[in-house]
Amino acid sequence: MAVASRPMASRSSAPDVAAPDAPYRLPRTAVPRRYTLCLAPDIAAASFEGTAEIELDVLEPLDQLVCNAAELVIGDAAVTLADGSRREATVTLDEAAERATFAFSEPLAPGAVVLSCSFTGVLNDLLRGFYRSTYVDEAGVSHTIATTQMESTDARRAFPCWDEPDRKAVFDVTLVVDPDSNAYSNSSVVSDTLDADGRRRVRFAPTMVMSSYLVAFVVGPLVATEPRDVDGVPVRIVYVPGKERLTGYALDVAEHALRFFSDYFDIAYPADKLDLVAVPDFAFGAMENLGCVTFRETALLVDPRTAARTELERVADVIAHEIAHMWFGDLVTMGWWEGIWLNEAFATFMEVLCVDAFRPGWQRWVSFGLEREMALTVDGLHSTRPIEYPVGSPEEADGMFDVLTYQKGGSVLRMLEQYLGATVFRDGVRRYLRQHAHANTVTSDLWDALEAASGEPVHAVADTWILQGGHPLVTLRDGRLHQEPFAYGPERPNEASNIGSAWQVPVIVRAAGSADETRLLLGEEPVVLADLAGGGPAVVNAGGWGVYRTGYGSAQLSELGAHLGELAPLERANLFSDTWALVLAGHVSLGEFLTLGAQLGDDDEPSTFSTVAGALSLCDRVIAESDRPALAAAARSLLGTRAASLGWEPQRGEGERTPSLRALLVSTLGTLGADEDTRREARARYDAAVGGGAAIDPNLESAVLDVVADAGLVADYEAFLARYRAPKTPQEEQRYLHALCDFPDLDLAERTFALAVSEVRTQDAPYLILDLLAGRLSGPGTWERLKASWDDVMARFPVNSHSRMLSGIRVLCRDEALADDVSRFVAEHPVRSGQRSVEQSLERLGINTAFGTRERDGLGAVLAAVAAGPSS
C-alpha cells in the first residue's frame, strides 16, 4: 500500500490531540495523574490478577470514562469522588477497539476522582504486554519468569490505562510474588514484606511522570549484580543465575554512558536507579523502560575474552542507545507515534556519539555509514516513506520501528550537527530538553530549539528531510552542482511514488588531497561551484556526512579511483556505496564499479569491501551456472591480494576495525570465491579447535563457520547444532545457530526450517527463516515451505517480526517466475504489522530481478575481464 507524501509543513508546538487520529485516540475528557497498581502474577498458571487506582482530572461533565484495555477481564469498578463518596461503574469491553468503558448512573462533575477496579489477565507467550519467558539453568532445570514489553501500545494488556504517549502520569507499583522470586520495576524498592500466604509484597517508589509504554515489571528467579555507584545512581545488571561472569562489560559501558549523557545533556539522570535486565525471550533488541531497561541476552551479556569486536560494539551500542532514551524519550516524549523518530533517531545518533567516545579506535562514525546505507537502500524505493508521517492504528505505530526512523533519522541529525557545528547543536539539544522536561513534543519543538541556538534556518532545511520520503542524487556537471530525486527504478504502475522532489541539501566539497572545504546549501536550482584549492578531483559530500547519493561521470569516477588513498575512510565507503546504487539504478555500468573495486589496494575500511562483496553476492544470485567459475575468479582477483596481505593472524599496530575486514575477506573468498587455500585453512582451524587445540579467534569464528558450512558435511551440521544447544555465551549461541543456515545441502536447510518452527526461541526463529530465504540454494525451497506453513508461522512468531522475516524475499531473484510467485503470494497475504516494509522488500526484489535480467547475458564476460586484471 503506497501512501502519498505528507505536505512539507512544520507542526504546531503543541501535541495534536484532536479528531484526525480517531478512532484510535481516547476522548480528552479526563486526564490521568497517578496510577496505584498492584499485580500478582501466577507464573505456573500463566495468569495474573491485579488492582488499579487511577487518579484522574475530569474535565467536563460525563457519564462514562473510556480507557484502553485488551485481553483483560475487569471487575469491581467504581469511582471515588472528591467528597469521599463512591459510585459503582458498569464495565463494557470492546476487544476490537481495545477499550474499556466505565459507565455511571449519574454524570461525574468536573474535578478530581479516583477510578478503581480489579482485573485479571493472561501471561501470554507472544512477547508483548505482560508475558512469560523461560530459561534452562546449568543443571538442566527449566524456569519461567514474567516480564513486560509495553511499546508501542501493549501496556493495555497488563492493566487498564490511558495508553497514549502524551497521557503521562506517576506510577506507584506493587508486585506480589512467590517467595523464591525477585521483582523489578521502574524505581527503587521502598518495602518488601511477607503476606499471610507467604508471598512477598514488593512496593516500588513512585516514578516521575511518564508514559504508560515505559512501565516495566519483571518477576522470577533472576539475580542482580551488586550495584555500582555512578555519581549517586546505583546501576545493576539483572540476569539468569550462573551468568554473572558476563555482566562486567555491560556495567562498564553503562557507567560511561551515564556520565557521558549527563554531561552532554547537562541534566541529571532522571530516575532513582538503573537496572539493565537480560530477558531470555525478547522480541526487540532492548526497551528503554525508565530505570528498568530490558534487553535480549545477546545485547547485554558478553564475555570480552571470547567476543568478536563487532559483538562488543553491538552491546555497547544497545546499552548507550537505551540509556540515551532516559532523556530523549522518557524525560521528553513525542506527543504521538508519528513523532517516534524524535525518540529513536536521536537515541541512534547519541549511541554512536557515546560509543565513539567510549572506544575511539572503533571509528564508530565510519561504521555508522554502513547503517546509513541500509536506510538509503530503502529510501531509494518508491514505497519509502517520510521519516515522520501520520499514524493512527497500533499496527501503524509498530510499523514506524524501521531503518528510516532509526538510521535515516539518525543520519539526518548527524548531517545537521555537522552543518550547524557540534557545540551549537548540543546547545540546541540542551535547550530542547530543558524546555520540555516531563512533557511531550512535536518535531518543530526541536527545530525551534536548534534555530534559537544557531540562528540558522533549521526548519527550512530539516523539514525537507523529515516530512518527505527519499533523498537526492547530487552531481557535479559543467562546474555546477545539481540535485534530482534518486530512485532505483521507474514508478510502479498505478501507484504513486513516495519519493520527494527537492531538498535543502547541506553540501561540503573539497579537492582530493586538500583539506580546504567549500560549504553551501543546495536548493532546487543548480549552484555554481567555485574553483577548488588543491587541483585534485572534486570530492562531493566531503567528510561523508550528507544523506544523499553522489553521482560522478565516467571520467570523474576514473579520476577518483586513482586518488582513493586521498579520501577519508567514510568518503571512500560512500563512493563505493553510491556507485553501486547507481549500478542498480542502471546509470553506471557494472564494469565501471568493479574496476573501481580493483583499485582498493590496501584499504582498511570494512564498509568499502563490504559493498564490493555485496555486489558479488547479487551477481551470485543471478548468474548463469556456466559463468559461475568466472564469478569465483573475479572474487579472488578483487579480494585475494588484500586477504593475503592481512593474513589470518592480527598484526602489530593494525586498526581495531581490521579484524572485521579480515573476517569479511575470509568468508567471501572461502564461499563465493571458492578459494582452496582459504577453505583448507578454515577447515584446519575449525578441526583444531574442536579437537581441543587453539580456539578460533572470536573475530574470525563466524567467518570460519561460514566456510566450513559451505562444504555441506552432515557431521559439521550436527556439531554446529550441538554447540547451539549448549553455548558458553549468548554470542556463541547466535554464531552457531545462524551458521546452520549456511549449509548448501537442501535436506539440511529443511531441518533448519523445522527447528525454526519448533525448537528455536520465537525471538530468534523469524531471523533464522530470513537467513534461509536469503540463501542462494536454500531460498526457493524455504519459500515453498514458508507458504505451506504460513498460518502456523504467523501465529507462532511475534507480530513485529513478520515483516523482518520477509525481508529475505528481496534476494529471491533467481528468475522472474519465482519473483512473480513471491509477489503474488505476499500481496494476497498481508501481515498485521510492518506491511509497508514488506512492500519495500517486494520492490527491492523487483530491482534485483531487473538487474539479473539486464546483466545476465554479459555477466560472465564482465567478471572474466575483472579476473584477468587491468591488462585485459
Give me the secondary-structure topology.
Blueprint: E1 30-42, E2 47-58, E3 62-68, E4 72-80, E5 86-88, E6 90-94, E7 99-108, E8 111-122, E9 129-136, E10 142-149, E11 170-177, E12 182-185, E13 189-194, E14 200-204, E15 217-220, E16 223-224, E17 228-230, E18 233-239, H1 248-265, E19 274-279, E20 286-287, E21 292-296, H2 309-325, E22 333-334, H3 340-358, H4 364-379, H5 394-398, H6 403-420, H7 422-436, E23 440-441, H8 443-454, H9 458-466, E24 472-477, E25 480-485, E26 505-511, E27 517-522, E28 527-528, E29 538-540, E30 549-551, H10 554-561, H11 569-584, H12 590-597, H13 606-622, H14 628-646, H15 658-670, H16 676-690, H17 698-710, H18 714-725, H19 730-739, H20 746-756, H21 765-774, H22 778-788, H23 790-796, H24 802-806, H25 816-828, H26 835-868
Parallel strand pairs: 1-11, 18-19, 19-21, 22-23, 24-30
Antiparallel strand pairs: 1-2, 2-8, 3-7, 4-5, 4-8, 6-7, 9-10, 11-14, 12-15, 13-14, 16-18, 17-18, 20-21, 24-25, 25-28, 26-27, 26-29
Helix pairs in contact: 1-2, 1-3, 2-3, 3-6, 4-6, 4-11, 6-7, 7-8, 11-12, 11-13, 12-26, 13-14, 13-15, 13-26, 14-15, 14-26, 15-17, 16-17, 18-19, 20-21, 20-22, 21-22, 25-26
Write a brief caption for the model.
This protein has 872 residues and is of the alpha+beta class. It is 40% helix and 20% strand. Strand 17 and strand 18 (233-239) form a beta hairpin.
